Amino acid sequence: MKDNPIGVFDSGIGGLYVLDRLIEALPGEDFIYVADSKNFPYGTRPPAEIAGIVTAVTRYILKQNVKALVIACNTATAHSGHLRAVVDIPIIGVIEPTARAALAAGSDAVIAVLATNATVKSGIYQKYINELAPGATVIPVGCSEFASAIESGDIGTASSYRRVAAKLSPYAGRGIDAVILGCTHFDLYRREIAAALPGARLISAADPTAGRLEGVLREKELLKDAARPGTVTIMTTGDAETLKQQIAWFRREYRGVHHIDL
Ligand code: DGL
């Protein structure tokens, strides 16, 4: 079991930013990443549909004999509660570790949660933060349009800065201490978001999730004893060539991009 790979998925490219941090934290592990590009975006779909897609992707990944599953997507994590009762390997979602990380800003912090419309509607960040720190203020902002723009490659351009500024400037004077990048795609908009909300700390899911994965594998004695570097295999339910071009920024070595049908 220890030598089995770790499965990771997202609706597209955002989860690769999380994968990068997982590799950094656990360089000896083998990873299988699924970009469910065919079903992108998740964040504008109704909850039951998202839950069905999450089940289908998970079923595929479990067939690859993984020892753990990282749901590198907030929207999918928010709609994955049904899996926990039927899946017997550890499932690590991004939301709870990220909510905890944001509270380093203080138990009375003002925290903006930028997420897909579906994640915001699920109320899951609000719930975790209210439980962990009842004195904190949560400002949820549904920004599904950012994920679509990022997926289409509009990053670091005049129009990406304009898009983000137009959406977030109304929040600039609200004393925001921390901004949760509550959609894994938004790591690719760090510069745009920092420009629109200067002074706020940006909280990515990537490092908190990597820390959680390492902790869970250690506790369950599932860490590989390997001295050699692990492998990374990337799969997409969409077009493999397109994904390759979309992820030119991903600097880790990987064994090609393979098309799969779920
Ligand atoms: N990366 C996904 C997330 O973290 C969202 C993108 C989508 O709408 O599919 O929520």
Short descriptors:
binds D-glutamic acid, alpha/beta, Rossmann fold, four-stranded parallel β-sheet, 262 residues
Description:
- The protein is α/β, with parallel strands linked by helices and 262 residues long.
- The protein folds into 2 domains: 6-94 and 207-259, Rossmann fold; 96-204, Rossmann fold (3-Layer(aba) Sandwich).
- Helix content is 39%, strand content 17%.
- The chain has 11 helices and 10 strands.
- It has helices at residues 14-25, 47-62, 74-78, 95-102, 117-122, 124-132, 144-151, 158-168, 190-196, 206-219, 240-246; strands at residues 6-10, 31-35, 68-71, 91-93, 110-115, 137-142, 178-182, 201-203, 232-236, 257-259.
- The protein has a 6-stranded parallel sheet with strand order 4-3-1-2-9-10, with helices on both faces. Strands 6-5-7-8 form a 4-stranded parallel sheet, with helices on both faces.
- Helix 3 (74-78) links the parallel strand 3 and strand 4.
- Helix 1 crosses helix 10 (206-219), helix 4 (95-102) packs across helix 6 and helix 8 crosses helix 9.
- The mean pLDDT is 97.
- The chain binds D-glutamic acid.
- D-glutamic acid (DGL) is lined by residues 10-11, 14, 40-43, 73-75, 116, 119, 144, 147, 183-185.
